[in-house]
Amino acid sequence: MAIFVGIFLILPGLTGIHSISTVSYVTVEKGGSISIPCFYESKYTDNEKYLCKGCKWKICSYEVKTNQYNSTKYLISDDQNQGVVTWTINDLTEEDTDCYWCVMEINHRPDNGKCFNVRVTGKGDATLYVDSQKVTGFIGDQITIDCHYRGSKQIKWCRTGVKGPTSCIKDSGKIDETMVTIMRNTPGVITVTMSELRERSSGWYWCTDEDLQMPVHVTIKERPTTTTIATTTTTRTRQSMTISSTSKPVNHTYVSQEPTTEQTGTHSSSNHLLSFIIPLCLLLLIVTVAVLTWFMLKRRKSPATAEDEQTVTYSTVTHVRKNTAQQINTEDEADVMYSTVFCIAQQNTHQVEDKDENVTYSTVVRH
Q: What separation, in Å, do the N-terminal and C-terminal C-alpha atoms of the chain show?
């Protein structure tokens, strides 16, 4: 009976161990960052996950959790479709050298976790590392990853999953129908070439020497369509004009037909200039017509010119009869008439007809 009870208590622990998988040991330089994938079975898809720091499970400290905000130090990404949660630790220092737990939170039961170790080294002292933990390729093409290592152990290239490394290549072979070739031309470096890429080639891989691992995430996607743009070059000579076209491939998904910034500015300036000139010409035309009309009306209503002015003559005639003495001494008894004539040019304020005659005003005084 005791044996059955012991087996019953041990089985849950063994099941938990195989339901979570991650790296065992990684090295990273001081000041760098490291991303660690942690795979879990579908039964933990909706569970909260957290990262706990400390080699002792009971006293480890929470660092980041899926239902909390990320910090600048710790980032968490949970891909529930692929069943993998990724922990990223930034700005590593010597104090970050420790054990970490990838934990699945379980309600009303003990949580389930898997431990991995991180060792932070000085510059250039990392035992196993890659130039970048993220690599992108296109379907049908190939990608290359350089794994740098120290020591004499043989490095392998493996694909990982919830059950740990599923396939590993030492020299050449295929992993999930993706061709893998490993070259060791440079001491301390292996060059991994993955060819015949397809969408399902995407996922987590790592370089490993059995004790250490360095994870690398590979993303394979469709290559963007290539559009050919015809560029026309015009050459003018004295005798003729030759137009030649050259086709230049440009890697763009689409070609924009919108004008360039320089063309847009030139067209805009021309439009503004036309919109200013046309109203100005209309305004000048209106002003000219108005001035001419006003001048003609004023001329018709203006006072008569100097030629139309009337000449008015005022005449004062005084008739004086001589006395007796004067009559005796004078042979002619005729009367003497004195006349004073004043000519005054008078301007008429109204228009004078051509047939008007000069008017003479005369005053005659008889004595």
A: 183
CA distances from 163 to 18, 90, 105, 160 (A): 7, 27, 20, 8
The residue type of 265 is G
Amino acid at 220: I
Rounded-to-integer distance, Cα 29 and Cα 41, Å: 32
Which pTM value belongs to this model? 0.57
**Strands 74-79, 128-130: parallel, antiparallel or unpaired by DSSP?**
unpaired
Q: Are 105 and 62 in contact (CB under 8 A)?
A: no
| Cα–Cα nearest to 209, from 138, 154, 252 | 154
**Structure confidence by residue, pLDDT tens digits, 226-242:** 665 544 444 444 444 44
Structure tokens at 352: 């004078």
* Tokens describing residue 209: 């020497």
Helix (H), strand (E), coil (C) string for 149-206:
ECCCCCCEEEECCCCCCCEEECCEEEECCEEEEEEEEECCEEEEEEECCCHHHCEEEE
Alpha-carbon gap, residue 63 to 57, rounded angstroms: 14
- What CA–CA distance (Å, rounded) separates 186 from 201? 26
